[in-house]
Amino acid sequence: MKIMTACIVTALLFVSEILAHEPTSDKKLNSIKFENAYFYNSEGEFAQEKAKDAIIALMKYHQYPIYEGIRDDLWVMDYNAGRFAEVGLSGITYENNQKNLYMLLDIFLLPNQMLAEHWHVDGEETAAKREGWLVRWGKSYIAGVGENNLSEFPQVEIPHIHWDGKVEAKHIIEGVPGSFTNLQQVLSKHWQMAGKEGAIVTEVANFADGKAVKRSDPKMN
Questions:
Q1: Could you tell me if 191 and 117 are in contact, meaning their C-beta atoms sit under 8 angstroms apart?
Q2: pLDDT tens figures, 3-58
Q3: pTM, rounded to two decimals
Q4: Has residue 59 been placed in a domain?
Q5: Is the pLDDT of residue 144 over 50?
Q6: Is 51 a domain residue?
Q7: Is residue 109 situated within a structural domain?
């Protein structure tokens, strides 16, 4: 009996290992794919609640812990560009402590969604933001200063809505679950773009002054 039980347990573990490495089904992946029109009402206004619905779907897809009240903590923005599916940002700011100079934020990016290129400057009372990113789920292509290797990542296509398809930061680091990437140079331009399964990224930094951020695309400032 003990031998039979051990065999059954071993078989179950083997099956679990196979399932864990199975490719993501299109049906499952479709649960986090949304057409841009979904995020806007008939007047073209950004429908924040629908954007939150999409981010909650992303959380469930990656089994992100969904606690009571998380929807109220979640914020979403489309940079007033009208193309949230392509260029947008969502997050939960768990702490942004000016007194003790630290910040903790989770960033949520939908499949192939771009976090617009930007940089941080000194605020009236605080130094320019220093930051780093820990990819938790999915994949994020993190761009910053360094040698231009954008051509090595054909899957990273800058949406035309973003500054006519342009960026200045062209050195890509492929962020995968468990990888940590630092902002290589204070005051430097940087941006991110999620892979086909989106991305959930934990950002750590000093205190973030929301007024001390600039964006490359003047339409998005």
A1: yes
A2: 444 444 444 444 344 344 445 788 899 999 999 999 999 999 999 999 999 999 99
A3: 0.89
A4: yes
A5: yes
A6: yes
A7: yes
Sign of CA dihedral 44, 85, 134, 130: negative
| Domain of residue 206, residue span | 27-220
pLDDT at 64: 98
Chain position carrying tokens 């910040």: 103
Q: Closest by alpha carbon to 55, among 3, 100, 91, 81?
A: 91
Q: How far apart are CA 98 and CA 106, in angstroms?
A: 18
Domain count, the chain: 1
In a domain, 12, yes or no: no
Question: Residues 113-118: what's their mean pLDDT?
Answer: 98
* C-alpha dist (Å) from residue 98 to 74, 103, 204: 21, 8, 14
Domain holding 101: CATH number?
A: 2.60.120.10
How many CB atoms within 10 Å of residue 27? 7
Residue type, 1: M
Tokens of 31: 């649960």
The b-or-e profile of 7-22 (16+ CB within 10 A means b, else e) is eeeeeeeeeeeeeeee
Residue 101 CB neighbour total at 10 angstroms: 12
Q: Is 32 exposed, middle or buried (0-12, 13-18, 19+ CB in 10 A)?
A: buried
Residue corresponding to tokens 């630290």: 102
